[in-house]
Amino acid sequence: MPLLRALWFFIQLSIIVVAAVWLLSQRGTVDIVWNEYSVSGNLGIFLLAAVLIAIVAVGLLRIIGAVVNAPEKFSRRRIEKNRRKGFQALTRGFVAIAAGDAKKASGFAREVRKLLPDETGLPLLLEAQAARLRGDEGDARQSFEKLLHDKDAAFFGVRGLLKSSIDAGDPVGALSFARVALDKNPKQPWVLKTVYELEIENKHWHAAMQLLDRARKQGAIEKDRARKDEIALLHVLAGEHRLARDENGEINRLERALKLDPHFVPTVLRLGEIYLEKNKKSKAAALVEKAWKVNPHPDLAALWEKLSPDASADPLRRVRWFEKLAVLRPDSADAQIAVAKAAMDCGLSGEAKAYLTTAEYIRPTARLYRLRADVEEVSTHNAAMVRGWLDKAASAAPDSVWYCTLSGNIYDRWSPVALPHGSFNTIEWGIPVGGAKIVSRSLDNGADLDPLMIETY
C-alpha cells in the first residue's frame, strides 16, 4: 500500500509538471488595457498565473466555508457522539434488566434520557422496565402510557400496561389493554391466548367462545385443550339457557358438546336427565350405553339406575338391568360394583359378594371394601369380618373423584367453574395428588350458577 501511494503521488506530480510546462510553452502575447494602464505578457505565463489564482481562490473559499460551518459541524458531531453513547447505554440498560440489576438499569435509564432527550420508544421502555424492576409500578405505568403515543413502539406500552393490570389483579383493565393488543396483532398466539383467558376470567362466555376458534387455528391453544374448553363453555351457556327456562337452547348447547365428546360423563348425565324428564328413556339409555362402553363411570351407573324398569314384581329384573353394564364392559370394576349394589338391594348377598370379588380382582379400592363390609354386615352380622373389610378399605388405593387440578379441592359433581376460587375447566375425574379439601357446593352444568357469575358480552 505505501508503494502504491508513492507511485500515485509521483503520477499526480508528473501531471502537474507536464501541465505547467505545456502552459509555459504556449506562444502568444496577452495585452490588458484598463484606462490609461496597459499590461503585456507572455500567453503561457498568463495562463499559469490564472490557474494559480483560481486554485488560491478555491482554497480561500473552502477555508471560509469551514470557518462558517464549524459550529454546526461541531454540534452535529456532538449529537452523533451522544447518540452513540446513548444507544450504548441503552444496550447496557437492557442487559441490566435481563440480569435483574435494578440499580444499574435505573442509572442507565437516566443516562439514556440525558443523551437521547428526543427519543421516545426504547428509552421509555427501558425507564418502564427499570421502574418495574425496582418495584415502582406507578412510574412504570406512566412510562408505558407515554409509549402509547409512539406509533412505532405503542405495542410495548400496551403490553406493559396489560401486565401491570394483571399483576394488580385488575382483570377488567387487563382485558381492555389485551383487546388493544389484539387489534394491533390479531394473529399473535400469546395475545390471542391472553385475551381468551381474560374473557374467561371476566366471565364473558360468549366472547370467549367466539375467540376460542381463532386461538385454536393460530396455535395459541392446543387442539385437545381447546376441545375441552369448548365443551365446558357449552355447558356454561347451557346453564344460562336453563336459568332462562329455555329448554331448547339448553339441549342445543348440550348436543353440540356431545358431538365434540360423546363419552364426556357430565354431558351424558345432563342430557340423559333432560330426556328422562321428557320421558325419553330409551334415548337416555342409548346415551349411557354409548358412553359406558368407552368410559364406565359411577355417575353413569346412578343415571342408569334412574332409567331402570319397574322391578317391584320381579326384583331380579333390576339385577339383570345392571348386568347389561357388566356385559358392555366386563373389565370395569365400576360395572361389577353396580351389579353388586343392585343384588344387595334385592337381598342377594351371595351374588353381591361374587360381583365384588370380581371387582376386587380388577381394581381393589376403598369404596369396594366398604361395600364388602356392608354386605357382610347385612348377611352375616360378623363384626370381625366387617372390621377386617374396613381395615382393608383404610389401606386400599383411593377412589377416583371429581377434583380441581389447580386447588386440589374435591367436588361431588363436575362443573365448568370450580368454586370458590372460580378457575375455569379445572375439575377432572381422577385421584388428586397430595392433600385435598372437600367442597360441598358444586355447579350442576350451570344450573346452580350464581346469576352474577353469568355475564354476556
From TrEMBL:
Residues 28-135 form the HemY N-terminal domain. Its main location: membrane. SUPFAM superfamilies: HCP-like, TPR-like. TPR repeats lie at residues 265-298. The keyword Membrane applies. InterPro entries: CellSynth/LPSAsmb/PSIAsmb, HemY_N, TPR-like_helical_dom_sf, TPR_rpt. Keywords: Membrane, Repeat, TPR repeat, Transmembrane, Transmembrane helix. The chain crosses the membrane at residues 7-25, 45-68. It holds the Pfam family HemY_N. It comes from the Bacteria. It is found in: Membrane. GO terms for cellular component: membrane. This is Heme biosynthesis protein HemY. It comes from Micavibrio aeruginosavorus.
